[in-house]
Design brief:
Number of strands: 14
Oligomer: single chain
Order of helices and strands: EEEEHEEHEEEEEEHHEHHHEHH
Number of helices: 9
Largest sheet: 8 strands, antiparallel
Strand content: 25-35%
Helix content: 25-40%
Radius of gyration: 22 Å
Structural class: alpha+beta
Length: about 350
């Protein structure tokens, strides 16, 4: 299997350098630029209660929260993004990159000290302060692509910062970040993330440590292995009865007694997401069942990742990785492994 890679100024047949997992450079062959017909409308990678914001807005319009007991500043959202951007430029310096997409939620509002006695409706713009508790971003690399089941996938990196996971009422300590590298299905903008491309909790004490851990995640990601596993999902299908069992058992899962659930594989999707998956089994134009009611596991996986767009920012990436692990578990069960059999019985 080979990834299609292109430069901003394409030069077919030329070898370029990329980083391998040990940090050394390796050769990547340029195979041509994606055609116009393969370009897709870019939809948000997450929806829920988020809105889009620009990097300049984060810099100019938001204050930076501090740790209350020592007044030490946190690493700001925009700094996390810029550090990730530098790492992407270092590793994929010869590749085309799209503009960063940033989504934010849960605004924390305040006011300047000279407006302390004003009512909220009387505040002037310069007297208001704000920052956003949760932020997610992605950087697309559209010159590295692959096709699975007729869907174009493009390499991307991104991260999540959620201040609600920090104890801002204490002294400054290690700060937490989530970072990933994986692919995006351009048909629907669903993220496809595997365990080796996801750092679920980077605990860092400063900028250099954050940069080092981002580079470590990028360099440890096995793109071809990830793509191979996703392609294999197209070769196996669930019947309508099996899919109905999957939906029903998944809804029961969260209400099982703890000792019974402890013996089952982890499944991180709640009723809200399962309702969306059930609806899209019939209605999704790209990933619904076939005329016989069967649905291949690639489509099942994309129904899960699509439903995940309704998750809040701080749980979004964990559920996305769980969707991939869970769908792979179903594939193994269809091949005779009994670990996930409970969900299909």
């Amino acid at each position: 299997m080979e990834l299609i890679t292109t430069e901003t100024k394409p030069s077919i047949g030329v070898n370029h350098n990329a980083f391998s997992s040990d940090g050394t450079r390796q050769s990547v062959t340029n195979l041509g630029e994606p055609s116009e017909k393969n370009k897709h409308k870019i939809n948000p990678f997450i929806e829920a209660n988020t809105k889009e914001v620009s990097l300049s807005s984060l810099k100019e319009e938001c204050i930076i929260p501090v740790f209350a007991k020592d007044n030490e500043r946190t690493i700001a959202h925009q700094e996390f993004i810029e550090i990730a951007q530098e790492c992407v430029e270092n590793v994929f310096y010869h590749q085309q990159k799209n503009n960063i997409e940033i989504r934010i939620s849960h605004p924390i509002r305040g006011r300047t000290s000279d407006a302390i006695h004003k009512s909220a409706k009387d505040l002037l713009e310069h007297e208001k302060t704000q920052y956003f508790e949760r932020m997610a971003f992605v950087i697309r690399i559209p010159s590295i692509t692959e096709t699975i089941n007729g869907n174009s996938l493009s390499l991307m990196v991104g991260g999540v910062r959620a201040y609600n996971h920090e104890n801002l009422y204490s002294k400054r300590t290690y700060e937490k970040f989530k970072f990933f590298i994986g692919f995006q299905n351009l048909v629907c903008c669903n993220l496809c993330i595997s365990t080796d491309g996801f750092a679920s909790e980077m605990r860092v004490g400063g900028y250099q440590e954050l940069q080092s851990k981002i580079l470590e995640t990028i360099q440890g990601y096995e793109a071809e292995k990830h793509l191979k596993e996703m392609k294999e999902l197209t070769q196996q299908s669930l019947t309508e009865h099996q899919f109905a069992q999957l939906i029903g058992k998944s809804r029961l899962y969260n209400y099982l007694p703890k000792d019974q659930r402890k013996g089952l594989p982890h499944m991180d999707f709640a009723d809200r997401q399962m309702n969306t998956i059930a609806k899209d089994y019939y209605e999704d134009k790209s990933f619904c069942k076939d005329e016989n009611g069967n649905i291949n596991l690639w489509n099942v996986y994309n129904l899960f990742t699509s439903a995940n767009k309704s998750s809040y920012i701080d749980s979004f990436l964990d559920r996305n990785v769980n969707a991939f692990d869970f769908t792979n578990g179903l594939a193994q069960t269809l091949n005779g492994d009994s670990k996930y059999q409970w969900f299909l019985d």
